[in-house]
Batch of 4 targets.
Target 1
Amino acid sequence: MPAPFTAEQRHELWRASPRWLLGHGPRQLGAELAMLAQAAGNTPPDSYGSGGTLEELEAELAQLLGKPAALFLPSGTMAQQIALRIHAERARCRTLAFHPTCHLELHEQRGYQRLHGLDAVLVGRRERLLTRADLDALAEPVAALLLELPQREIGGLLPSWDELSAQCRWARERGVALHVDGARLWESAPFYGKSPRELCALFDSVYVSFYKTLGAIAGAALLGERDFIREARIWQRRHGGNLVSLYPYVLSAREGLHGRLPRVPGYVSRAREIAARLAALPGVRVVPDPPHTNLFHVHLPREGEALLDASAAIAEERGLTLLTRVRGCDVAGHSVVELSIGDAASALSLDEVEAGFRELLERSAR
Amino acid sequence: MPAPFTAEQRHELWRASPRWLLGHGPRQLGAELAMLAQAAGNTPPDSYGSGGTLEELEAELAQLLGKPAALFLPSGTMAQQIALRIHAERARCRTLAFHPTCHLELHEQRGYQRLHGLDAVLVGRRERLLTRADLDALAEPVAALLLELPQREIGGLLPSWDELSAQCRWARERGVALHVDGARLWESAPFYGKSPRELCALFDSVYVSFYKTLGAIAGAALLGERDFIREARIWQRRHGGNLVSLYPYVLSAREGLHGRLPRVPGYVSRAREIAARLAALPGVRVVPDPPHTNLFHVHLPREGEALLDASAAIAEERGLTLLTRVRGCDVAGHSVVELSIGDAASALSLDEVEAGFRELLERSAR
């Protein structure tokens, strides 16, 4: 049994460990800012949404994702509320449709209600993917349907292409606007054997994120028709997101896009290899198996606190961080861990990862 | 007569000129980020509003400004809407009182209405300072009174301490919450011979900015009682301002606070010296005379475009940028220029500034 650590001690041990399984490893502020200083060179700063590398990045994104216009925003929360407010006003209908685990429902303190006066109909069941059948059962008119690709909260699940197309047809047939929560859209493309652009073609408006798999400091983009984005800029100002300068985020997003987007298929393959090893461990389950993206859940027959202590002990003794957070779990004595695979895992062999999880299970056993 | 330049050419000439009158000169992205990289060292990043230098900065601000709690936010637009929404909900009244040139009225696309469902009563006349008499004439109940120190749009004017105290008493006697738009609060303190903390003591909630005189990349803070700031954090999330990482802004705000706040009284003195020289030029008027802060208006008997062309020509020929923007003016053939004095002006002698404006007037004459 490892000695129990304080939350702070754990975080220090994880940060200090030279090898990580998750994402791109811990952020190194000094190194990151020095890299951005290099990338910035002598470019002029952006100013309240125009000029500098900001406009260049927006143009590049519009091109890459096949939409007429793009808008860089500080956060996805802002991007999505803005998109849905515009769809709602255009439809003269304040009701939205989305899954019960939608980010707007779980993580935004109901901004869509309290700031925008919008209502939501929750479609489908929280523990599984949204389906066309769920949509067919919907009895109320809605302004917009939000689809999240992949559905993060349930393990990064993606519907089949046929199912996804059927859901989009449902909206099209009813004149319902289609918005995609593409926080992990880049990571979804390999599952369908399609480009991000082909996925975006299904939707009227698209939100993508730069800080997750692309590893930027923060930042998001909203894409759509020109008039839609023109309107979104007004809402950006209302939200307080039209900053005098966004260049640290813009530069960081551009670096992530150029450096990491080409590596995303590799992250997904590696996630599948790692998941296969973990799924073979006793009492361990991987969801989905195989993973659809570079993100998946690992169900472990252990208490969360014991896992975190074991992870800190392994970081201390072996210099390897396997996990830093545990999601709740409905089954007593079981825990769910979300793994997201990026650059960091490329320094680890599959044997090391497997051995690490074996040790984690041993150390966290009662 | 200078040759007319395109807007882009002007901006290039200004950016390339080695000497500036305004603020701290043009931003040098590479150098700025390299400086932040140095300042960051090995500190851990903040994460969704906690940890890292973010919490340290919030604690430092609370201490400095004498309020129980502080919240760092991406923008002042977000900070002020949040503050006023909270005051409105607590008062169970949706009406706010502020001056017609309030930032919320002019520059935020009516976010206070469209996002927060708040109404405003505009108090006082747009061309002059708000007064206690204006407040006494108010016939409707209001939840909060917003005072801006200084009133930027009319030249950075400040009311006398007695007048300001009388306005605050008006609110106190009626149980109306008092909020200060302190975008330039740091710069107001010298006028009163008081500390920023003593100014803040008048108000229930305080917004301060880091990107203006303090020269940070962007960023704002909201201060108030602990429960007020706890509530503000919820609204920050709703606004999409609870970013995964704010550290470039936080580091930059800290550098501005430590490096430039002690220099603010010097900026104000220099602004007065410069204003005195300009006020002596033929046909030129300075508002207010003398300036109350480091910001003031210069009224010039010239067309705006001619001034901008002359400024670009002087930048090209003498390597000196005197102005880069012209405010509109109600009198044909006249222009108003806002000057804000910071680090850049310390490299210029008063004679150089005066000679520069003489040349500007000559070159822009019809």
Target 2
Amino acid sequence: MTNPPEQSGRSDELLSVNISRLFNALLPLSEPQSLYRSGSFIMDSQGENGIWLLTEGRIVIRRRIDGLILASQQAPIMLGMAEFFLPTGQNFYDIEAVSPCTTHVIKKTDFMTVVNRDQLWESVAVVEAYIIQVMSQRDRLITSRSATDMVWGHLELLQQEPEEIRQRISAAQYIRDRTGLSRSTVMDTLARLKRQGAIQLQRGHLVCICID
Amino acid sequence: MTNPPEQSGRSDELLSVNISRLFNALLPLSEPQSLYRSGSFIMDSQGENGIWLLTEGRIVIRRRIDGLILASQQAPIMLGMAEFFLPTGQNFYDIEAVSPCTTHVIKKTDFMTVVNRDQLWESVAVVEAYIIQVMSQRDRLITSRSATDMVWGHLELLQQEPEEIRQRISAAQYIRDRTGLSRSTVMDTLARLKRQGAIQLQRGHLVCICID
């Protein structure tokens, strides 16, 4: 499940260069909004909503219909593009700050003006490609053939989260928030992996994965 | 799970207009390749692979690592954009023709030249948005809280497939190919839905869903 480091490094850099280009051009026309830890906002295709630029902090994206967490993302990142370019009126997400966040919103018309003016469409295509890649990775995780594979895949994700997140949330909760697996399945699998020496947990929080 | 028809109609039209624009500009520079029913080709980021344009027929996209079917798509559609714009080297898919297909491949450099020349970036953004929407829909289906919801969601998908597909593949196989649910879970759930009068099956093939 882990990315080959070299390839992943190259694609991280490509994403980061393109997000910088977009942020530099879009931020002067966007409106800052603070997002507090417990706050949430809604992405949808109604009204004048545009693209959300997260310039600071870390968020999780929850699907509103069932509260499932689809992704964790660290600034800088842009959100809301799929509904922006191809509105379905079906996708409602709540964005929750997991650390103090600053977001900026840019209106649809301003976004189009700036992207056309500064010829930033290729950067837009790269950011959308990133979203597709994140969703492909999630798809691999949640359609693993066994609960053990699903738990293991999410432990790998958890290990990539900042220390602060790993201390705040138990491994079991992290996995259940993202998979819909039952409490007992998750607890039994974690207990087995711990017994086998594959992971170290401390009061239910992930310390480390012990297998290469 | 079903799209509100009005909204869905509008977004279908938007997609179709933008794919036509891209195909008109890209096809003259692309190379035709026939894809037979049992054939498959590979999308990856190696070598000179570019974007695949499906101009005729119907395909399924299988994830190579486990053979799971991620999507069924009808021409006209473009494939391979996420790895094209943001190569991860991680995503390998087999594309299987389920009806006689014609595909065209356009090289990376030609694609960039044409899209820049004809200012087709917004169309590219719309097609990527469509891929994100398809994946969001799939995510909702496969993370349903119960096996019954997963089976039901896939029966709704199956009902939208052409008649020919529904006659060729049994409902159970269709669902198992896409979810990784066990044979017994799928069979038990289908049997229960049939007993409840919620679906009609004929020799295992879906005739119709009987609930509004």
Target 3
Amino acid sequence: MNETIKHQLNHRSIREFIEEPFSETTYLELMEVARQTATSSGLQASSIIRISDPELKKKIATICHQEYIGRIPLLLIFIVDQHRNNAIAKAQGIISDGAAGMDSFFQSFTDACLMAQNVVNAAESMDLGTLYIGSIHNEPTELCALLNLPPLTFPVVGVGIGKPNQNPALKPRMPMRLRTFENTYKAPDNILESLSDYDELMQSYYDLRDTNRRLDSFTHQVAKRINAHNPTRQELLNVVRDQGFIFRLK
Amino acid sequence: MNETIKHQLNHRSIREFIEEPFSETTYLELMEVARQTATSSGLQASSIIRISDPELKKKIATICHQEYIGRIPLLLIFIVDQHRNNAIAKAQGIISDGAAGMDSFFQSFTDACLMAQNVVNAAESMDLGTLYIGSIHNEPTELCALLNLPPLTFPVVGVGIGKPNQNPALKPRMPMRLRTFENTYKAPDNILESLSDYDELMQSYYDLRDTNRRLDSFTHQVAKRINAHNPTRQELLNVVRDQGFIFRLK
């Protein structure tokens, strides 16, 4: 097994970092990796907002309901960016809403995610810790305002990076035979039974942590999450439209 | 610079592979990497369809208008999968459409992309070639039917992997100073001027290829693409709804 894969198999979310300024050399190296990431049709329609202002960081931490986000050494927000390419077309006299269509949106969204994971892999290869931050979608409209995101942009995911100041255990995942299919999707006959071993494993994992908390089985976690989903977040598509994207629904 | 980053900075799309069966050992190693990929709230709501049936591969190549896809040694389609977690909740008596909301959709979409890029990085670390296939969205409804994708699933992106049988030049990308912002989005005053050096570089890159074709500058490519966008693909959101997701538009 090579070093890249060793790091990939050792991925954990790191929430506490050594408090020191992030190395600019490392930052620029990570951005070169971002730059070379695969991009749909070569259009490079995603961008990155680096949050360096401590006050802004704290505001984002509040949106995310996670105070430790205010202390992350390098905080990056990956965004859909069709604004730039739309401006490029307009400056050449093109009158078309092509950049505002949902195909363009999904291409950019994918570009932003690929770039985020590429940066995460680069950071982890340097023994840095990383954290994905999906909770930026708790208040997407507020976040767009805070970052002055213009039309045809949209915040996709946040990533925190720094030297880890904790060493959490590897979280067990369900076996890949439950997540891979050959040629055709096929759900298992008894979904709960197919996950019973994993449910046990998940409970023992939490038992091993240095807390008194024993967490739920995976299937209970899923049930709770689905039952208690956040209604505001489920309305996310309204914000996509507010940002100027055109749905073309039939 | 470490080996991981060396590989990342050397990313190219590979379209021609040595025609031989893909190693099962390597496949399983890639799937372990997929398994350990970061996942929103630990919900693991994405899956992979491996296309091994040669006839199915050709049908997908037809959808993509790229015949070489029919010859890719390992062809994977990464999908949104809220079907599994919805079934897990239902089997426990939970009556909630939480898995069908757009927040759940975007979380799964992100999960699928992160998994794809993690697998691509693993494959490239083993000196394999990779290809992202976004053109599966040319005919998303047909693709869903071909793969028997049930409600609450959606095809995100395809990835081809194999031993490369070509060695294309590294494609130049725009400088990251145009794609990164500090604390606030700020578009350049003159977008075409800001890209003039890159436009020149892009043209010389194509000049160096072993073809007589001299391609357009980047800004011309963008203008053409936006002007000639595919109207069917821009209606992609209809297919998301057809697959059972609920938009909750205001």
Target 4
Amino acid sequence: MSPHARDVYIAVIGTGGIGSVFIDQLANLHKTYPVHIHLIYIAMVDKALHYADYREIDIPTAVEAMEKHGAQPPSFSTVVNFLKDAPRPIIMADNTSSQGLADMYPEFLRNGISIVTPNKKAFSASYKLWKNIMEAAEAHESFIYHESSVGAGMPIISTLKDMVETGDQITRIEGVFSGTLSFLFNQYSSIDGSQGGEWSETVRLAKELGYTEPDPRDDLNGLDVARKVTILSRVAGCPIESPKSFPVESLIPKELESMMSADEFLDKLADFDHHMKGRRHAAHSVGKVLRYIGSVDIATGKAEVGVQIVDKSHPAANLKGSDNIISIYTKRYGALPLTIRGAGAGGDVTAMGVTGDLLKIVKQSK
Amino acid sequence: MSPHARDVYIAVIGTGGIGSVFIDQLANLHKTYPVHIHLIYIAMVDKALHYADYREIDIPTAVEAMEKHGAQPPSFSTVVNFLKDAPRPIIMADNTSSQGLADMYPEFLRNGISIVTPNKKAFSASYKLWKNIMEAAEAHESFIYHESSVGAGMPIISTLKDMVETGDQITRIEGVFSGTLSFLFNQYSSIDGSQGGEWSETVRLAKELGYTEPDPRDDLNGLDVARKVTILSRVAGCPIESPKSFPVESLIPKELESMMSADEFLDKLADFDHHMKGRRHAAHSVGKVLRYIGSVDIATGKAEVGVQIVDKSHPAANLKGSDNIISIYTKRYGALPLTIRGAGAGGDVTAMGVTGDLLKIVKQSK
């Protein structure tokens, strides 16, 4: 390790899909950046490990040690109390999707504990929570970064922030923000004009390939996209009240919204295939395609999320696989937007966004 | 201005197209970020203004004051001597394209003077200079950022650095890196299959629209693209020796390389139109298009720059206007690259990259 290596103390909450890859990246980080990561707290849903004297937990074996020697996790308030007296800089990495933990962010920040996270909840719940978080960070000179809350490791949030901070004016943001819905429409309404299968079959295929949540309705309701549009709008300076304060088109037929298993839902979805088929026909017959798009006009605050008929030259038309795409229109960029495209999900790239955020804090720490 | 505003001292060298916009952004920066910019040195080719006591120069009127009260610019060594005793943090913004100033970067950095610049020369000359610069910055804890040296304000270099620092492995970089050559081929070999005019007419049109250098041969020789490929390769960890150490296809017929004016060149270029026409025909007859592409395979260090026949689904095929595009293939991103597309030239977005770099240094300064 470099003699210039900086010390940083870290608490990791959440050791699932993203958390475990993040821990793996932490374990190897000293090979590519001169930093000494001291892991002093690690927790999953029902286990947590830490030492009262802030003794370092060996990172490569941390999960194993937690599972073997860990205790019931303390409350988040107790975690704040433990971390506030830790050596500095101290960072809490939230790799959960917990609203309860998100609600505690202001407490962490007020106590000088910085945060890195892919958890969308804190930034897409009420505008009041967003404001509390940003004000707590500013007043107490702690940092909060959440690059991976939209588009995984792609440089989207950092780019929007750079634009705002350097005085550009963002006018419009538009894109495909869900890997699942990207895959579904790229398959179902292909740019090469081939028809693809029935809508319900396409959803079933996506589920089988692991592209959907265990219950595909959690993708099809559009809430995930609405959350991302909310986050981007706020970063761009537009105070969207909540992901439920603008029109979001759900792809779940009203009759199938609840009270059945995911399997039963998939079976019954076939009864509604003709709806989507009609929309696809309308698009293809004029040489266009269907895409599930989120957008916001920053000046007016008008946001919307839903299926659109787009031209084949539209940036979203030509997507592959489950790629995300975002177009950012600004005053400085003029008529043609800055467009970023790539994998917006997956453990490796999501964890990379969190690790990158961590290094940003390390670099800025005194 | 916020009471938390940080002080930063800055020397601006170069007040041309990019420099003047940069100064304008500096003058307004306090409105969007809590920073107090102290301009203590400003210079153009034949004038420079500074005060021995590091007194602040009013930014909005700086160019005017320099033109009125400025003296003959001192040598770059004298500038280093002046700046090394300035209050910290001190940043030199090089908005020139001077190789002489680029050669002095190690001197600036060794004296604790950080650098922000869109000037490609320092990073695309000999590998030895690159190494001297990076080593000087590391040893003396000064910063050097050059986002705008490739793709103007687009987040390309910062993204590559984040990938490297967090432990991703970049495998391949490919793209269209010249706004001029993007425009020429988007016009000449359009994705909609229309033939476009003759090659020489397209070049003439680009010149008339202001898309080329005063002498279009400075774009057509490919050196600008070769420099950018060199920079990106090095940032990605591949020690390319120089922009002349790999194959670069010049679009200037051998017979027209020198000894004539730009106008005469344009007249005579028509005699060679059949060459490019044949290549276009070869591409279009199989449903493909011509694009001028730079690429590097990071593992083998194999770089090349030149005209390629690409499929219409290739990211570069669908470009508009004079947009740049870059695709970054990495281990974590897998088969589909991270792709960034947008304006890669222009005063506003180029200066924004430099201003963004400045803020990165402000944030990291103690």
